[in-house]
Amino acid sequence: MTDSLREMQQAAEPRLRPAVVKPGARTEALSRFLRNGTWRRTIPAGRAGPGSPEMDVVGRVTCERVIDGLWFSCTLEQDLFAGGEKLLTWKSRWVAGWDVAAQEYRAAGFDSNSVAAVF
Hints:
Layout: H1 3-12, H2 25-28, E1 37-43, E2 55-66, E3 71-82, E4 85-99, E5 104-111, E6 116-118
Antiparallel strand pairs: 1-2, 2-3, 3-4, 4-5, 5-6
């Protein structure tokens, strides 16, 4: 087969182009959850488990759209204090969005206690 014949054959073949997915109404509906913020609370003694002390909590969340705006990702951090002493910083990452293939919302979260949750 000559080069020119090969070029004509390739030009005649249909070309498949991958679909470009853009955020739609279902994705935009999640925008109300894209909030950055902070909080301060007191957890009563025993609320975090038997024998746990009263704890002060200072937390923050930062959210952003990721992967061409199709998903949102939030990073959460929460410092726990008891008697003025910092006990730990809990951290978590959440990703959520509209799954076009499954036709439903999907979310997953992971935290510094080595816990994963899929919704």
